[in-house]
Amino acid sequence: MHPSDLLNEALAGLLARPVRAALTALGTVLGIATLVITLGTAATAGNQIVGRFDALTATAITVEVPTGEVGWAAVDQVTRLRGVTAAAALAEGGQSANLVVRSNNLLDPTRAGSQTLSVVATTSGLPATVRGRMLQGRYFDQGHMRRGDRVVVLGEQAARLLGVSRLERAPAVFIDGRAFTVIGILGGFQRDRGLSGSVLVPPAAGRLLGLGGVTRVLVTTSLGAADLIAGQVATALKPGGEGVLQVVNPPSPTRARDAVRNDVNGLFLVLGLVSLVVGAVGIANVTLVTIMERTTEIGLRRSLGAARRHIAAQFLLESTLTGLTGGVVGAAIGVAAIVAISAAKQWTPVLDVRLAVAAPVMGALVGLLAGLYPSMRAARMEPVDALR
Amino acid sequence: MAEPVIALEALTKEFATVRALSDVSLVVGACDYVAVVGPSGSGKSTLLNVLGLLDRPTSGSYRLDGVETTSLGEGERTRVRGSRIGFVFQSFHLLPQRSVVENVMLAEVYGGHPRRDRRARALAALDRVSLSHRVGYLPDRLSGGERQRAAIARALMGAPCLLLCDEPTGNLDSRNTEAVLDLFDELREQGMTIVVITHENEVSDRAARRVRITDGVLVEE
What we know:
- By secondary structure, chain A is an alpha+beta fold.
- Chain A has helices at 3-15, 18-56, 75-79, 126-129, 142-147, 156-162, 203-208, 226-237, 253-293, 295-303, 308-345, 353-380, 383-387, and strands at 60-64, 84-92, 99-102, 114-122, 133-137, 151-155, 172-175, 178-187, 198-201, 216-221, 246-248.
- In chain A, helix 2 (18-56) runs parallel beside helix 11 and helix 2 runs antiparallel to helix 12 (353-380).
């Protein structure tokens, strides 16, 4: 028997009862669609979580520096590394070293102008490094740093505590009794949010307040470059003395993603497999009934010279095609559903190509397995009985 | 003398307790037209099934076109059945969802017939039974006589040497019966060997030879 004749006969057999064929495939459609939606949604949601990790955390590197080991200028070496978007060196005192900061040098008991705040000396790259924005005024630049100007920038929270909201009249704050001009208010911190409550000063001004050497270097990288930069940053800061620096890498997002995937997958995978089994039983049942109905057709084919294997092959192919159709339709519905869910949630749909290809194959396999018993029954029929 | 198409010798077929065919011997030559008659349950159908290689005899010899069939394996019997024998059934057994020409083409799907010109051969077979004007019809839309003629066209596909007919006019009125019998006469003139099983005198009277089977015993009339 020619293969195309076999395909022809199987297709004709299915299309002779199109509604029945469609209903038979429905079980497989549901099973495959459930599987595709489950796996696709898990991948999409997991990716979404990774996306958030990336934007906020996965690009942030912190280097802890023992005081005095790294000079202020070393941070320029870091910004030169490919993949670094911004870097800033910080000098911080301990918690106990917080200084009294007042917005007014007059002692006015009716106004709460005096706060104990942390004072941090930073290089000019800090706003970019924390992805903040200037709410008022400007940040200090290389010029301020070089000249040792007595200027400060207030973190958003520190500004609120001190009651400084407008800079038109060049307000001053008094730190440890010394006056500094407020030139800007920095807000919108995306990392190291603690700095929002700090008073930020240039390194030279910091020295006046007892903030000697660099204690921390913050580095922000472009997406995906964090691991690479983490391996280079210590050398860039202190060539030959990397050992004393402690580089804090962003946490790996992969594990978080896998955890989400596993949570979502377990239950729904079982559901999908169950409906697939139900689909297979459906195909087996209908094929069996069809064979009973088509007994005389089987007898006729045997009288026309069909061997048992020809009969078996035809019914096996019919059930496999049913499963394949169910798999294709189910995969299509699944993909459409994932895209719809992603659109509704404004996520990026993530779909493994292997899944889209494997789903129809799986459907065909279900049909093949479901057709094994019925087609054996059909092949075993005696032509004499079948024609009676 | 040429090899006979059918040569049965001491053929016996037993079912559990019943002896359906008892020591049957029969020779049918080329271009013979034999009617097998007898009451129901006499063994007519069993004889037809054995002749059509649909069933195996319990003992005896059956040579079809010179080939001893009783010693053939299942696959060989299937091949011989597909290539040497054309079946005509009482209830036509046309596939209802396939057109007339597709039903006829079905006869060459199995048994390694070439795919080329299959449709042309089917159309030629339909022309032989004067059904050229119905090739694209579904069987539902044909009259009983037309359906049986379509079935005969299907039996003629693949150039068999033997046409085995099981009550071919059982479902037909007298006018259509006449038409089918005329067709058998024509086919026989063209060289076809025909064995018809029937209980209708109208049919058996038209045959060149008549054999009667009673309780499994075959007698020439």
